[in-house]
Amino acid sequence: MSVEAQQGIATPRIPAGLGGLLPALILIGLFFVVPVLALLLRSVTDPAPGLQNYAALLGDGTYARVFFNTFLVAAVVTIVTVLVAFPVAWMLAIMPPVLASILFGIIILSMWTNLLTRTYAWMVLLQRTGVINRALMGAGIIDQPLPLINNLTGVTIGMVYIMLPFMILPLVGTLRAIDPMTLRAAALCGASPLAAFRRILLPLSLPGIAAGGLMVFVMSLGYFVTPALLGGTSNMMLAEMIAQMIQSLLNWGLGSAAAFILLVVTMALYALQLRLVGARRTTGGA
Amino acid sequence: MLLDYDRLGWLKAALLAFTALVAAFLLLPVVFIVLLSFGSSRWLAFPPPGWTLKWYQELFADPSWIEAALTSARIATMTAILAVTIGLLASFALVRGQFRGREILRGLLLTPMVLPVVVFAIAIYAFFLRLGLGGTTIGFVVAHTVLALPFAIIPMATALEGFDKSIEDAAIVCGASPLQAKLRITLPSIRIGIFSAAIFSFLASWDEVVVAIFMASPTLQTLPVKIWGSLRSDLTPVIAAASSLLVALTLALMIVTALLRRKLQT
């Protein structure tokens, strides 16, 4: 019995070693790494070997506009999302459990609802004859319907809606980890609420804001569905342009090159985000 | 006292009001779409002039909607099974394995979650065109499993990290084989993680739009592709009816999750 037991522990178990990773590595290697590398190869060989696809993308004003637009939308969406998410996360972190669980339920419902469903709802709500325009005109606030869709406003509303849970949920964790005693101490020492917010609460939650904000920014950069449905032709974003180059124009060389640029930017920002989260972990533990 | 709910003073009222507004903003599209699906106006007038079930009748009378939903359910189920199986094996290796480059491999397996889907979509589309897998169920399942794998690995690896391995060792000391110990001790202990992994990977496939748009063929369409196509042509209330059913499904999943979690935790 005891000999058996010792053998049992001593024998290397298959899932404990590298073996268990094999199926996952085969799947990711064969159907993720290889196709992406093949795409990158195509960007420098299609239609002829060389860097002409990249030269075309980076040298042309039309494409430059798309790049600029992509960064603009991602930046606006990130800023609005952070500003809206912070007070909500703050309340969520300290409100009574019953209220908090209702609010969590609403956030999860919105997050789990089909992406196209949510975008469809915004398309109907924001259109010229939509509910929001009618309500505003009915209330006498505006005379003409506001252009809320097929422009930056529409994309921003739709994207902020999608990104909010991704910002709120991690921020709640950051805020809950802050020791309330630090703020009590500040109040005891005579700090006004504003000073306590500016000098204690905000700095302590900054790592969470930065990490979440960067994640929202990265996700927004490569977003396809919402900008394609709520945005206009004059403010096309990179992901939509890539899809169009492949699907409608069948220009694989140019599309692959644009995809590679998106990949490099995303991965660089993601690496930065990982370092931020890592930094938060080490400082948070101290 | 900024982190003390009962001593926030006037700030509390302001912050609560703002939070309530955001909650309303988050609920608005979901509630609106459900109401709209029962409205009688073809032109989506709101509030609707009357109430009707005709959009649901139209939805169920159209076999292409039913077929798209069944296709989605089939692909999502297969994706969830594959992703949980492969992910479970990988989680054991990532959490317990002692080998060099473990963190790099973990990063590699989670990359599909970070890379913009459109990049993966055109890459796998081109790749499958060459292999002759474009527009096939297998192609869909493989592509969706790649995307779902991170969502399967994260909850299971987290659960496994929180599991005390000495309990498994105790079972082995008492005569269980390593495999028996895993099947009868470890897996039941991390079942919440496995269950979350199954839900997340099912949803990752069920809601997936971008890869599906590229991969779909006239004979094989998932539900998101069907909705996408209808959205681009017109905003018919039939989409609202289909969307409301998806909202109902989400609610059902949330309730099942909450109930099961409560049951599994006790």
Sum up the structure in keywords.
heterodimer; A: 286 residues; mainly alpha; MetI-like fold; 2 domains; 13 helices; disordered N terminus; B: MetI-like fold; 12 helices
Protein model, in words:
The complex is a heterodimer of chains A (286) and B (266). Chain A is mainly α. Chain A folds into two domains: 1-45, no CATH class; 53-285, MetI-like (MetI-like fold, Orthogonal Bundle), CATH 1.10.3720.10. Chain A is 78% helix and 0% strand. Chain A contains 13 helices and no strands. In chain A, helix 4 runs antiparallel to helix 5, helix 9 runs antiparallel to helix 10 (193-221) and helix 10 packs antiparallel against helix 13 (252-285). The longest helix of chain A has 34 residues, at 61-94. Chain A is globular and about 70 Å long. Mean pLDDT of chain A is 87; it is low at 1-16 and 282-286. Chain B is mainly α. Chain B folds into two domains: 5-37; 63-265, MetI-like fold (Orthogonal Bundle), CATH 1.10.3720. Chain B has twelve helices and no strands. The mean pLDDT of chain B is 91. Chains A and B meet through helix 1, helix 2, helix 4, helix 5 and helix 6 of A and helix 1, helix 3, helix 4, helix 5 and helix 6 of B.
Specify the oligomeric state.
heterodimer
Count structural domains of chain B.
Answer: 2
What is the largest interface, and how many residues per chain?
A: A-B, 99 and 91 residues
CATH superfamily of the largest domain in chain A: MetI-like
CATH architecture of the largest domain in chain A: Orthogonal Bundle
Shape of chain B: globular
The number of distinct helices of chain B, counting runs of at least 4 residues, comes to 12
Percent range for β-strand residues of chain B: under 5%
Structural class of chain A: mainly alpha
CATH architecture of the largest domain in chain B: Orthogonal Bundle
The CATH class of the largest domain in chain A is Mainly Alpha
> What is the count of β-strands of chain A?
0
- End-to-end Cα distance of chain B: 36 Å
Domain module tally of chain A: 2
* End-to-end gap of chain A: 46 Å
Q: Helix segment count of chain A?
A: 13
List unreliable stretches of 5+ residues of chain A.
1-16, 282-286
